[in-house]
């Protein structure tokens, strides 16, 4: 079967079914992820002009690497599966593009060769590939994680094992996943004296995707570790607070409602998960060859304005808790702003928002919404 995406045409298996069975993997639903990758790579190359060598470390059909090659990157497409490698070769050829194709274990390749940008897009968790990626990549590591249940705390023990952090299943579960992943990436990079700066991160349907810029010094690694800390959460009234540092200082009782049903999550990445200027630059790189252009544009618009508070609220969840009907979001957020609190919508969902205000302050400020 032939698929056209972003100005290239690739062959993918008829029975492509998200990696189940023997077929080479291809998931059409990930087009948004790939469109955003191409735009982010363009924006990144404008910012870091020397960036030239891109590794699609788990290439499958090669569609991502082929699109990068079509965009002028010196691309290497690698996969451990010989059928995938054959398909990558055919797909580069079909588009009359140069590019290196190698059948290689991604870890071995990343340890042996240095790339400016490395893309890790595995089945499930990226953890088995993180050490090699951070040990050797020069500028940017792009990571997809599809194991959202462990990341969000829905599969608690699996999350603890994989990410060496305590994830908690809260009303901001997708953001919990983002911050558990970023924490694990920052700690892994720090082992190689590299500091990470997340310049773009999104949680979309069943995956988290992040773009981590690297600075290679012990002090940069320390600065990234300084962005880690814990979130303390009340399961009854949804109060939450956070503090920075690697040693947790849990709250025994909720300072707002007195409940003892409190949770501690961490170490989480509490710093910014995106750079608003970079997000705006990525938006400028979208073009109409991208099938998901308008969706990506909407996502980037929301992300650009998203506050850096480490957790978000869901208006419907709060209103349910308070026994109120949920008013229109604009009115609700307007009342919160009128009461003096900064607010933003978030990309985590249409009824989600961020604010530094506490649950009680939100409740008071929106009483008449
Ligand atoms: C989710 S797919 C990649 C999808 C692809 N990047 C895309 O955008 O369509 C994961 C790929 O990783 C490959 N893979 C699994 N383990 C690997 C390893 N250790 N080294 C290299 N590739 C590996 C699989 O063969 C599979 O093709």
TrEMBL record:
UniProt keyword terms in alphabetical order: Metal-binding, Methyltransferase, RNA-binding, S-adenosyl-L-methionine, Transferase, tRNA processing, tRNA-binding, Zinc
Entry GO MF terms: metal ion binding; tRNA (guanine(26)-N2)-dimethyltransferase activity; tRNA binding
Gene3D superfamilies in the cross-refs: N2,N2-dimethylguanosine tRNA methyltransferase, C-terminal domain, Vaccinia Virus protein VP39
Class in the EC hierarchy, top level: transferase
Reaction(s) catalysed by this chain's protein: guanosine(26) in tRNA + 2 S-adenosyl-L-methionine = N(2)-dimethylguanosine(26) in tRNA + 2 S-adenosyl-L-homocysteine + 2 H(+)
Pfam families, per the entry: TRM
UniProt key word Flavoprotein: no
Binding site for Zn(2+): 234, 237, 254, 257
Single GO BP term: tRNA methylation
Record bears the keyword Ubl conjugation: no
Taxonomy, superkingdom: Archaea
EC number from the UniProt entry: 2.1.1.216
Record: residues binding S-adenosyl-L-methionine: 34, 64, 79, 105-106
Record InterPro entries: SAM-dependent_MTases_sf, Trm1, TRM1_arc_bac, tRNA_met_Trm1_C
SUPFAM superfamilies: S-adenosyl-L-methionine-dependent methyltransferases
PROSITE patterns xrefs: SAM_MT_TRM1
HAMAP family, per database record: tRNA_dimethyltr_TRM1 (MF_00290)
NCBIfam families given in the database record: PRK04338.1-1, TRM1
Similarity annotation: Belongs to the class I-like SAM-binding methyltransferase superfamily. Trm1 family.
Known function: Dimethylates a single guanine residue at position 26 of a number of tRNAs using S-adenosyl-L-methionine as donor of the methyl groups.
Protein name: tRNA (guanine(26)-N(2))-dimethyltransferase
Gene from which the chain derives: trm1
